[in-house]
Amino acid sequence: MDLSRALAPRSRLGRADRVGPGGGLSGMSLDVVRTAYAAGSAEYIALFGRVDQVAEVDRDFILAWALGLQGPVLDVGCGPGQWTHLLSAAGVDAEGVDPVPEFVDSARASYPSDRYRVGLAEDLGVDDAALAGVLAWYSLIHTEPEAIDVPLAEFSRCVRPGGGLALGFFTGARLEPFEHAVATAYFWPIDLLAARVEAAGFTVSRTSTRTEPGTRGHCALLAIRR
Ligand SMILES: C[S@@+](CC[C@H](N)C(=O)[O-])C[C@H]1O[C@@H](n2cnc3c(N)ncnc32)[C@H](O)[C@@H]1O
Questions:
Q1: CB of 100 closer than 6 angstroms to any ligand 1 atom
Q2: Which residue CA neighbors atom 1 of ligand 1 most closely?
């Protein structure tokens, strides 16, 4: 797998196989994503596992957002744990969760003073309103659009009123899939995803986009739990 070229073999699964009756990532789809990230975890960690390997503008954006919150922040889909570590090192009460045990093991080894566990966006394993914030940085990119309300509802359940949500995602003019290096992912028009975030119980407070030559459109979205 060559993550740096962001080219991927097409999933052989059809849509009906990928969407579970209860929404979210179906068991089969989650298995596809989890297996693909597990197989590519070493490469992903080598490319993106430290905060000095990610865009400075994203570091500043995420840090400024998290430092404006008061209370625990869950880094959902934390991957190698670089964002959890950035936040923890800055004094934020942060924890990382990811469904891929290889990422969680690596994060614990790289950042032993931080907290990481295996977990899912669709089931965060925390009490209602327990969190000051959820960071989901490119963690919902593989979630089927018809299933996106499931993790968003879970974020809404777990974030207290006045708390924050920060999403990073690929944006485009149309809601459509593309072959990401790891597994099928989706471009979201900002308005469409913002509407789903609002419907889940948040008020979108800011969106910020960036497109660099040769890269996909990036969007960072901030929202406040009503
Ligand atoms: C593109 S990577 C982003 C990782 C990290 N947030 C970063 O910015 O480098 C997507 C991550 O989302 C995780 N992921 C995929 N589906 C998920 C789900 N349903 N719940 C939580 N995490 C998920 C993957 O395991 C992977 O670590």
A1: yes
A2: 138
Ligand 1 and 99: CB distance under 6 A = yes
**DSSP 8-state symbol, 52:** G
What confidence score (pLDDT) does residue 67 get? 98
- Answer yes or no: CATH 3.40.50.150 is held by domain 13-225: yes
Domain residue extents for the chain: 13-225
Q: Which residues of 61-100 are buried (b: 16+ CB within 10 A; e: fewer)?
A: bbbebbeebeebbbbbbbbbbbbbbbbbeeebbbbbbbbb
For ligand 1, is residue 120 a contact (CB within 6 Å)? yes
Q: How far is the CA of 185 from the centre of ligand 1 (A)?
A: 11
Q: Which two tokens stand for residue 67?
A: 């430092």
**pLDDT tens digits for 7-55?**
222 222 223 233 333 345 555 588 899 999 999 999 999 999 999 999 9
Can you give the pTM of this predicted structure? Answer: 0.91
Two structure tokens written together for 84: 């959890």
